Fold each of these.
Amino acid sequence: MHQVFCSPARYVQGRDATLILGAEMVKLGIGGKALVLSSASAKRMLTSAWKETFSKAEINYSVETFSGECSRKEIDRVSKIAVESKSEVIVGAGGGKVLDAARAVACELSLPVVNCPTAASSDAPCSALSVVYSENGEFETYLFYKRNPDLVLVDTSVVAKAPPRLLSSGMGDALATWFEAKTVIDARKKNQLGGATTISAQALAKLCYETLIADGRAALTAVENGTVTPALERIVEANTLLSGLGFESGGLAIAHSVHNGLTTVSETHSYMHGEKVAFGLIVQLVAEGKPQALMDEVLHFSHSVNLPITLQEVGLKNPSYEVALQIAQRSVAEGETAHNEPFIVTAPLIADAIIAADAIGRRYLAKHGERKLVGVS
C-alpha cells in the first residue's frame, strides 16, 4: 500500500484576509466570473469586503445565499445557477456545510473552488470531500473529489466575531484527529485517500492535538471577547489546516462513525458536527480501552472549552439501550470508518461503549461541575 498525502493548493490566514482574496485568486490564475455561495451571516459581514477585493482584482461575481443544508437538492440547485450564470469559479463563504456544498458544485462542473470559512468550526475547508445530508439533517454519504480546494482563505477578524460555540465545535472535530489517525496507523488501514499515512500527516495530526491542549482555552476566551490573539490564530490553524490535513491524510475511526450514528436520532440534529464528534471520541477511547489518564486529559480539555461529554449534552436525555443500539448500528454500517480499528467492531460493542462513555462523562460532571452549554436544555 502506497503512502498518500494531499492538501489545498494554497492556504492563507490572518486578520482582514478577505481584503486580499481577489489578489490571491489572481496569483493562482483563477479568474473569470465567480459565484459566491454564502451563508446569510457571511453575506452580512463580507459584502463590502467582497466588493473591494473583487473590484481591485477585476473579478466579476454574483452572490447566492445557501439554503442551510448540504443536501443533494441544494447541490443541484446551486449547480444550475452556476451554469446559467456562466460562472468560472465557485467561492464558498460560511460554515462547513456551505463549503461542502461549494466543493460539490465545483466538482460537478469541473470548476476551481475557493473556500472562505467564516468560523473555525470544522476541518472541512481544506478537504477533497463533502458530507451530504438529507433535507432533515440525517447523514447520507461522503462525496470524494479528484483534488483539494485551489485556495483556502481564513479571515481571523471574521472568525473572532463568530459565536464562541462555533470555535468550540471546531476544536471538537480537531480533538479526534490525532486519535483517529493513530488508530488507522496502528491498524495499518487506509486513510481517507485510500493509501497509507505519511509521517508528515502523522506529525501534523499530533501537532493538532498538542496545539489544542496548549491554546484551546485561551483562544475561546479571545472569541468570547471578539479579539484576534496569537492563541486564536494557532487554534484557527489547528481546527482548519492541521485537522484538515490530519484527518484526510491520516484517517478516521470510531469517533466520526459515532457522529454519523448520532445523526439518525432527531434530537441530535440541532447539535454541531464537532460537538457530536467530541462525544464520539470518548466512545472511541472507551472502545479501545485507553488508560484512565488519557481519558481524564480529554475530558478535562473538553470540559474547559464547552464540548459535550455526555449524551444529554448532544440532545439525548436518559436514552434507552435501544437508542444506543440504533446509533451503533449506523456507526458500523458497511464502509464506515469504525472498521478502521485493529479489532472487529460490532454494533453491541459500540452500543456498550456509548453507554459507558455517557456514564464516564456524567461522573466527571458530578465531580467537576455541570455546565450550561448552548443548545442544551
Amino acid sequence: MKSIRPCLAALLALAFLVNLAGCTPKPVIPLSVFAAGSLIQPFNELEKAFETRYPYIDVLPEYHGSIQVMRHATDLHEKIDVIATADELLIPMLMYGTVDPETGSPYANWHLRFASNRMTIAYTPQSRYADEINADHWAEILLRPDVKVGLSDPRFDAAGYRMLMIFQLAETQLDKPALFEDMFNGQFRFGIKTEAGESGVTVIHVPEVLETKPGSHILMRGGSIALLALLESGDIDYAFEYESVARQHNLQMVALPDSLNLGSPDVDYSSVMVKLDFQRFASVKPEFGGGRIGYGITIPTNAPHPREAQLFLEFLLGEEGRALMDAMYHPLYDPVLAVGYENLPPGLQKLVEPAP
C-alpha cells in the first residue's frame, strides 16, 4: 500500500500557499431572519439561492405568527437581522413605538411594503361538504355543527384577526346580521365580543384568555401554518389561509370576493377593527383596523449584521428574488414602497419608491 504522507505534504503546502495569497475563506456570518409563517416556502427558496450567491452567509430563519415575530424583537429583546411580517402596520406600531433599552433608539424607523395577499377558505377533498361549498354559501357550510373550522390565534397571528374581520364584514355583504355571533358565540371560555365604535366602525374585542370550550366547532392554533396539518389529518374541515399558502400546498379553495378577501386596493375595509383587550406588549396596545393586506420587512436598528441584512433585502427585491416569489404565488409589489424612505440605507433606496 502506497504511503499517504506525500499526499498530505502536498495538501499542507497548498494550504500554506493559499494563506500566503490572502485567500483565507471568510468566516461564516449567521443572519437571523424572523418572518411570518406564510412566508416559509418562498423564504426557504430565497435562502437557498441567497446562500449560493453569498456562501459566507448562513441564513437562520425562524417563523411565527406576525405578532409573535414582533414580540421576539420588542418584548424579548432578541437581536434579529431581518424582520418580515404579514401585517406591515405592526412594524410602525410596535417597532417605531418601542425603544431598545440598550441603545435608547426605536427598534426600527423604516420599513418596506413589499407584497400583498388575499384571504381564502382552504379545504381538502375529504372536508365535510367539500362537494357543496362555494363562494355563494360558504357561511352556511361553516356554521353547520358537524363542521370543524380552524382559527389561528388572533393574539399572535395576523391571519387570525383577519378571519374575525371577514366574518364581521360578511354580515353586511351577505345580509346575515347575526353571522359573527352565530360563528363564535359560545365557542370560547371568555367570548369574543363586538360593539359599535365611532364613525360606524364595528370593534371586535379579543380577550386576554382565549380558550375554546370542549366540543367547540372551532380548533385554534398559534399560527395559520399550524392549521395545515389539521386540514391534512382531517381534524378540521376548513381554515382561513392566505391564498399563496393554499396554492403552495395544493389545497382546494373558496375564492372570496374582493369585498371580503382583504386583498383589493379598490375596497375600503375600514368598517371593522380588532382590539386585543390586554397589555401583552410593554408600551403599546395593539389595535388593528381593517385594510388591505400588506406585508412589511425591515432591518432592526440593533441588527447584529446590518450589512448582510441589506444584502438579503437587495436579493429579495432583485430579479432572482422576484422570480422566486412569483414561483411561490407571492409576487412582490412593483414598485416596492418604503415608509421612512429617508432612513433607508442608500443601497435600498434605489430599489424602492417612497410610500405616498
